Amino acid sequence: MKKIFSLFLTIYLLFFSGQAFCAEASLDEMIGQMIIVGFKGNSTVSRGFKNVIKELNNGKISGVIFFEDNIKNKQSLFNMTDIVYKSRMSARPFIAVDMEGGQVQRLNSKNGFEDFPSASKVAAMDIKQVQETYSNMAQTLAGNLFNLNFAPCVDLDLNENSILHKKERSYSSDPAKVALFANELINAHYDKAIVTVLKHFPGHGSVAADTHLNFADATETHTTAELLPYKNLMFKNNLIMVMVSHVFNKNYDEIYPASLSYNTIGWILRSELGFDGVVITDDLDMGAIKHNYDLEETVIQAINAGNDILLFSNRHPYNPNLVDDINKIIKNAIVEGLIKPDRIQESYDRIIKLKKAIIAAEKK
Hints:
By secondary structure, the chain is of the alpha/beta class. The chain is about 45% helix and about 10% strand. The strands form 2 sheets. Strands 9-8-7-6-3-2-1-10 form an 8-stranded parallel β-sheet. Strands 4-5 form a two-stranded antiparallel sheet. The relative contact order is 0.13.
C-alpha cells in the first residue's frame, strides 16, 4: 500500500504542476528549505547533531538552531558550526541562534563567551555604547559562523507582568525608541552578513501569559502601536526576516493564533504592511501550539497562513523522525488539495533569494 501511494504521489507531483516543480529544485528540496530544527547534544559525535547533519546533506532542512545546552565551550561550538557550514546541501545552510542579550543569549559566560546587556539596559546607554555593544555581538556570532540571529525583539514594554518585561527583553514602551535601538543591532549584524529577525509579530508585549507554556490572548490588550517598529524596520536592508508569535488576537483572527493565521500574516503583514521577505514561525514546539494543535494541523495551517520557514526546537521530547514526518504531511496535503503547490514555490523562492543575499553580503 505504501509503494502504491508513493508511486501515485510521484506521478501526481510530476503532472499536477509542471510549472511549479520542474524548475531548479525538486519538491523535497523546496520543502527542506522551509524547515529549521534544533537538536539534542553538544558535540560533533552527539546522535542528535549527526542526525541534523545527515538531514542537511540530504536537503531535508534549511538550517539548524543552536540552544545554550548545545554549547559546551568555544571549541566544541565551532567544531559543530564548521560542519554545518560545510554541509553538502545545495544552498547555504542557516546557522541560527537566539542572541538578544540579557537572559536570552545562548553564547554567554557560562560556556566561555562574553555576556551582553539586555534590551532594557541597552536602552539606557548612549548610542556610541550601543553601537560598540552590538558590533561586538555580531563579531562574536560571525566568528562562530552564525548567519541568522533571532533578534532584535521589537515588542513594546506594555505590561509589567509579561515575560518580555520580566526578562528585560523590550527596549521601551515607545515604538520610536524601540526602532532606534533595534536598528543599531540590525546595522551591526548586516555589516557581518548576518540575518536579523524582527519579533514577535504582531506584538507580544501587552500580554501577561507566556506562549512557551500555553495560550496567550491579546484581544483586549493589543494596540496598533505595536506594529510601528515593523513599519520602521522591515525594509532597512535585505537581510531581515520577521518572526510571527503564537499570540491570539480575536480582532485579527477568531480561530487561530498569529503564527497559524492567514489574516495576520497574509493580510496584515504581507498585504497591509507590504513585507515580501522571509517569514518564520516562532518555535512550533512551544506550549501555545503543541498543547492545542496536532502536528498535521500545525504544519498545514502554518504554511497556508503565509509562513516561509517552520521552526521546531525538537528537544523536549526529541523526535529523530520529525523532519520526515513534516515532509510527509506537506506532500499528503498537496495531493489532497490542502496546500497549493505554488505556496511551496513561493516560500522556496523567498528563502533562496535571502540566502543569495547572505552570500553577496559576505563578499562585500
